[in-house]
Specification:
- It is a single chain.
- This protein is α+β, with helices and mostly antiparallel strands.
- The chain is built from 11 helices and 24 strands.
- The chain has 3 domains: 117 residues; 131 residues, Alpha-Beta Complex (Adenine-n6-DNA-methyltransferase TaqI, Chain A, domain 2); 165 residues, DNA methylase specificity domains (Adenine-n6-DNA-methyltransferase TaqI, Chain A, domain 2, Alpha-Beta Complex), CATH 3.90.220.
- It is elongated, with a radius of gyration of 29 Å.
- It starts with 10 loop residues before the first strand and ends in a 15-residue tail after the last helix.
- The N terminus is likely disordered.
Length: 434
């Protein structure tokens, strides 16, 4: 598929911060004269509701499957309007819904008057417009755009046939880029699934053939190789958790030198540093365990996806009450145990949920009774080496795909930003759809 964009004619300077230049024959107009700001409000909206969370940043796409609930007054939009997020406008949350409905009051609802809707949508997504809006926000933690400023921004107004050409071409171009992005995301998701299965096969089968396996007592691995132990984790490790010393007691915190870790640190995977430190007095008086390096830490409570995450400790530390420390004995390699617990993250969360409670917690007692496989030490070492290869290869692929996705998204933004101000000559936007 080949697409053409661009008006003919000379380029002229506008004297504006944006757009600095425009093709001859294009005009500029304050946004408030090109659109009408819809200010209707309703108290109890019915039907389709669009919140900021329903709009993807910088893409113009809507995800109406994301649950969003109106609180208080809501804005009203009509089919044909364009929505622009006034809260944190640097996120460039723009949408052109195809139905009537209601929306967050953090969205400007713009009814096109002297612009085609498809052109207006891409104009609002362009880097130049977004940067200009963002430069004049108010509020530090929750920056918002003010219509008094936004409405007075001078915007390009191409002849209508150019607006039509730009809108159609960008629709096709964006759909093509989004298709590529979707394929890449699906590919990496599949690769992660394959890698996870390879890791689990190594952790629970090692290098044994099916003929040399026996039934196990592991609920997540019904068979393990002959010669492996399967027993409760408490038989092979010391398991304990900590506490939080009172903040108002200065001798517990002032000039502290002992690393003190919270459940948020487990997301680092391998913990090599601390953000907070306690004193020896805190360790003595607050029943804080001194956890040796190469212990495994498991978040036993936590918001969102934190509960059940396992990390390996690379330096001695102490912990708070939301973390369990597992110090294996000489029969169990720390790295092997870490990989086993990592692989069973979802199972751990499910087993500890107690019927699906969102306030569920993993306890030290639960971990002591957790059944685990224990291969011979030499086999644990060999398994860990193979697992590390799989992990590193997956991380390399993740990094390569992430860089490609970043480039594609940046290219999409660049093309949109240049197209809406007429800086793409005819025939310059060319791609092939397989």
């Amino acid at each position: 598929m080949t697409a053409a964009l661009a008006p003919a004619g000379s380029i002229t300077e506008t004297g504006l911060p944006w757009p600095a230049v425009l093709p001859g024959g294009w005009q500029t107009l304050r946004l408030k004269y090109a659109v009408s700001l819809r200010k209707d409000r309703v108290d109890r909206p019915a039907g389709q509701y669009i919140g900021l969370e329903n709009i993807a940043p910088q893409t113009g796409s809507l995800d109406l499957e994301e649950d969003s609930t109106a609180e208080g007054l809501s804005g009203v939009y009509k089919n044909g309007d364009v929505l622009f997020g006034r809260l944190r406008p640097y996120l460039a949350k723009v949408a052109a819904p195809e139905t009537d409905g209601t929306c967050s009051t953090e969205l400007f609802v713009l009814e096109p008057r002297k612009l085609r809707r498809d052109y207006l949508k891409y104009l609002l997504l362009s880097d130049g417009f977004v940067e200009l809006v963002n430069s004049a926000t108010y509020g530090v933690k929750m920056p918002r755009a003010d219509w008094g400023f936004v409405g007075n921004i001078r915007i390009p107004v191409p002849p209508e046939h150019f607006q039509l050409e730009i809108g159609r071409t960008l629709d096709a171009f964006v759909a093509f880029i989004d298709e590529l992005i979707g394929k890449l995301v699906s590919t990496i998701a599949l690769q992660r699934t394959v890698a996870q299965r390879s890791v689990e096969r190594l952790l629970f089968s090692g290098f044994a053939s099916s003929a040399t396996k026996r039934r196990s007592r592991l609920p997540y691995a019904p068979e393990i190789p002959r010669g492996w132990f399967d027993g409760k984790l408490g038989y092979f490790a010391v398991i304990q958790n900590g506490s939080t010393p009172r903040r108002e007691v200065l001798r517990y915190w002032q000039d502290g030198s002992i690393p003190w870790l919270t459940s948020g640190k487990v997301h680092e995977g391998a913990i090599e540093s601390a953000d907070q430190f306690v004193t020896e007095a805190a360790v003595r008086e607050c029943h804080l365990p001194l956890v040796p390096r190469e212990s495994i830490l498991v978040a036993i409570t936590g918001e969102g996806r934190t509960r059940g995450v396992a990390a390996i400790l690379r330096q001695p530390a102490t912990i708070n009450q939301h973390v369990a420390a597992i110090t294996p004995d000489k029969r169990l390699r720390p790295t092997y145990l870490w990989r086993v617990l990592q692989s069973q993250y979802e199972w751990l969360r499910g087993e500890s949920a107690g019927g699906g409670s969102t306030r569920a917690a993993i306890t030290c007692e639960f971990l002591r009774h957790l059944p685990i496989p224990v291969p011979p030490l030499e086999e644990q070492d060999a398994i860990c080496q193979e697992v590390e290869i799989v992990v590193q290869e997956t991380e390399k692929l993740d990094s390569a795909v992430a860089q490609t996705l970043q480039r594609l998204r940046a290219y999409r933004r660049t093309v949109i930003s240049q197209a809406v101000v007429g800086l793409l000559p005819t025939g310059s936007l060319t791609w092939t759809r397989q």
